[in-house]
Amino acid sequence: MGKEHEIFLVENYCGNVPVFIVDWPVESKPFYARKLTEDKVAAVDLLFPYVGELCGGSLREHRPDVLIESLKKHGLDQGPLDWYLDLRRFGAAPTGGFGLGFDRLIQFLLHVKNIRDSVPFARAPHLCRL
Length: 130
What we know:
Blueprint: H1 3-13, E1 19-25, E2 40-48, E3 52-59, H2 64-73, H3 82-89, E4 96-100, H4 102-110
Antiparallel strand pairs: 1-2, 2-3, 3-4
C-alpha cells in the first residue's frame, strides 16, 4: 500500500484512530518473514492518521527448509545466502523485528505537513563532505 492508501484507510474506515494491519499476504513481504499459512505471513504495520505507516515489523522465519522454499518462490539465488541459512540450520532461536519511523512520529506529534520539516538533519545527497 502507498502512503495515500494508508492515510485513506485510517481516516475513512478507522475514525482517525491508529490501526494495526496484520497477517499480510506472502507476496507483499520479504522471503524471511515467518509464514503462518500458505498465503499469509506474521507481519504487522501500525498506521497512524496524517502520516500513514508509523511502524512495521514481522516475525522471522527460522526453519531452513521453509526459507529455502521461500527463496525459490521469490526467485532469489541461495548461494549468497548460505551463511544466513547456516545460522538457521545450527540452532538459531526464533526472532522478530520492527522499525519505527522516528521522523514520522515527530511529524504526527507536531502535525507537520511535510516530513522533510520534521527531520533533525539534512538528508539531501552530496551535502555531507567527507
